[in-house]
Amino acid sequence: MIKDKKVALTAARQAGAAKAYALYKANRQFKREKILKDPYVPGTIGLSEVSTAIKKEYGVISDRWTRKMVAEATGRQMKFYGGSQ
């Protein structure tokens, strides 16, 4: 009688382990395929007519980092094409 209970317990444990393993295999995430296209190189798209006109009129277009630093230092927001609001 004890042997039957022991076998039943072993079978129950194995069934639980088999279920956990099956769920692990079913829900795993696969690696993404490697992208073969060339990476973007900044400045290769070219300037739009609007940005060209702004550069012509104001001289330079400020990047986001510069605008944030000026805003933190002065307490005033800066337009992206130069000058304060």
Please give a structural write-up:
The protein has about 80 residues and is mainly alpha-helical. The chain has three helices and no strands. The model has no long low-confidence stretch (mean pLDDT about 80).
Break the fold down into its secondary structure elements and pairings:
Elements: H1 2-27, H2 49-58, H3 64-74
Helix content: 55-70%
User: From the helix content, strand content and strand pairing, which structural class follows?
Assistant: mainly alpha
The counted number of beta strands is 0
Q: Flag low-confidence runs.
A: none
Please trace the helix and strand order, writing H or E for each element.
HHH
User: Biggest β-sheet, characterized?
Assistant: none
Between the first and last Cα atoms, what is the distance in angstroms?
Answer: 88 Å
What can be said about this structure in brief?
The chain is mainly alpha-helical and 85 residues long.
